[in-house]
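Box S1 | Example of a co-folding query
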Amino acid sequence: MSIKKNGKLRVVLAGCGGITGAWFTPALERGDIEFVGLVDIDLERARAKQREHALDKAVVGTDLGEVLRQTSPDAVFDCTIPAAHRDVTLAALKHGCHVLGEKPLADSMAAAREVVRAAAGSGKLYAVMQNRRYLPEARRMRDLVASGVLGRITTLNADFYLDPHFGGFREEMEHVLLLDMAIHTFDTARFITGEDPVSVSCHEWNPRGSWFRHGSSAVAVFELSGGTVFCYRGSWCAVGLSTAWESEWRAIGERGSAKWDGGITMTAQILKEGGAQGFQHEKLDLEVPPPPELEHRGHGGAMDDFIRCWREGGTPQTVCSDNIKSLAMVHAAIESAGSGNRIPVRW
Ligand SMILES: NC(=O)c1ccc[n+]([C@@H]2O[C@H](COP(=O)([O-])OP(=O)(O)OC[C@H]3O[C@@H](n4cnc5c(N)ncnc54)[C@H](O)[C@@H]3O)[C@@H](O)[C@H]2O)c1
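Box S1 (continued) | Returned holo structure for nicotinamide-adenine-dinucleotide
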């Protein structure tokens, strides 16, 4: 990739649905992105976004290839549905564009591998919107674990309990929790530990009274490459006492533990040097260093990482060749739930 690009990043955005609010706000605030095209298979949706954000000069259409030919952008922002991510990315790469796409990077492992190969062969970037990596509190948890103050990590737990009524496709789809949501939590586990997934054993079910058709709850136990065991317990039909969308976390190390509520609260305890060695050894409440100040967070953070690499060279954190490991966790968990076996995680 060429080094030091100045000027605006010229972008075509494909898929003008619900999530684009999280994209347009940080993109337009930055001032260094020009939306030169908007594409949706439903033309009225693209027009509505054009009106909403006063993008009068943007070419609007239903055919991505045609809009790319007319506008020759630097990048495509892919906000389409998962089933379209492969085709949108391949078309964008073919037109010489970099791609920042919504999660998941593709809707199957075969499609994901194809796209990762195509990105490598094109010399262009394909990064995935795994926005939770760019939350200051997730960084805080990762930094605490990496500091070694808890000793070497042995166990990481994430609890995810909510009861959203989405209506629409989610209430009909198979493996809804694992496919549509768990990738965020699985990716955050990789982020916090810095370890790769090795294998998984998963049980998936749809509890009595569920308003989803399939798979709204799951428990998955992953073995990670550093020996850490990552335990995920999740449900989208757990009524009451909701956790944060970012999950509730506990990291256990050889010398101490840390808890993060998924919001702004983090607590930690470690063994006290020279403390009493009774039935339970004496602990010390740790003052956890504050989260880092991030200029861009969430969707805006991933966008900033992508643009910085476009301008200066380098690799975004959520580059597809790494992000495929999080997708592989999802698909291995689904395979394990179906077979009842522990499954190796391969990408
Ligand atoms: N990162 C997050 O926190 C987060 C949150 C919600 C959704 N998402 C992801 O964002 C993506 C979109 O979700 P959404 O909730 O906005 O869905 P949505 O259904 O509201 O919008 C998708 C849009 O894509 C359009 N579309 C479908 N196929 C297309 C194609 N081939 N070319 C152009 N347009 C096409 C649809 O007409 C629709 O307007 C999904 O991959 C979803 O998983 C991510």
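Residues 14-19, 39-42, 45, 64, 79-82, 84, 88, 102-103, 129, 131 surround nicotinamide-adenine-dinucleotide (CB under 6 Å). The two ends are 25 Å apart (CA to CA).
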